[in-house]
Amino acid sequence: MGKLWNLRIVFLRLQYSVFPIPKFPSFFLGLLPIHMRVDLMDFIDWSGVECLNQSTSHSLPNALKQGYREDDGLNLESDADEQLLMYIPFMQVIKLHSIVVKGPEEEGPKTVKLYSNKEHMGFGNVNDYPPSDTAVLSPDNLKGKPVVLKYVKFQNVRSLTIFIEDNQSGSDITKVQKIALFGTT
Fold first, then answer.
1. For residue 118, which phi and psi values (nearest 5 degrees)?
2. What one-character-per-residue DSSP string does 17-40 give?
3. What's the CA gap between 97 and 37, in Å, rounded?
4. Which of 51, 70, 118, 184 could potentially form a cystine with 60 if both were Cys, beta carbons 3.0 to 4.6 Å apart?
5. Backbone phi, then psi, for 95, in 5-degree steps?
6. Contact predicate 21/36, CB 8 Å
7. Rounded CA gap, 63 and 76, in Å?
């Protein structure tokens, strides 16, 4: 039985390795190679994206939008203090597997809290809700290594709220060079 199961998994991997997966049983998602999970940027509802405490000259699109986020000279910066609160709605329900948060060594984010399907959050009430997942970013993460999330907590996601609580050095400005979300639809 074990060999048959392994052959079935290999077949499924080969079958779906060339094409995007429209609907694939979530049970198998953990077995899928990272290249089969897609960048969810195309599923973001850009008209509803918000970011609190962003600098007017260094705003969220610098870190989130294709083309901008690949340019290390552009970044998202906090304004009044080190915290940032982002709200990202999606055009359809998604399943979030991992996130990339890239930033400079000193001013890059440190503690990142993620909330699934929590709307209308602000700095006054963000700590009233338990996060769906919390990541403490390492230097490898700041260079682009994905943070694998608690996948069961990010099923049926209509919106994602990202709270960057602090940065690596404790300075007043947090800089984010890239945010990328990976999963399936």
1. -110, 115
2. SSS--SS--HHHHTTS-GGGSEEG
3. 8
4. 51
5. -120, 115
6. yes
7. 6
Cα dihedral 137→128→122→178 (10° resolution): 10
Residue 21: count other Cβ atoms within 10 Å of its Cβ.
18
Cβ-proximal residues to 138 (8 Å cutoff; 6+ apart), any chain:
145
How much is the pLDDT for 66? 85
Given pLDDT bands bounded at 50, 70 and 90, which one contains residue 26? very low
Closest CA to 55 of 26, 77, 28: 77
Of 50, 175, 63, nearest in space to 110 by CA: 175
Pairing of strands 147-148, 111-116: unpaired
| Terminal CA-CA length for the chain | 31
Phi-psi region of 34 (alpha: psi -120 to 50; beta: other; left: phi over 0): alpha
Retrieve residue 41's tokens.
């940027």
Lowest mean pLDDT among 34-38, 59-63, 77-81, 131-135: 34-38
As given in the structure block, the two tokens for residue 22 are 């429209």
Phi and psi torsions of 4, nearest 5°: -65, -40
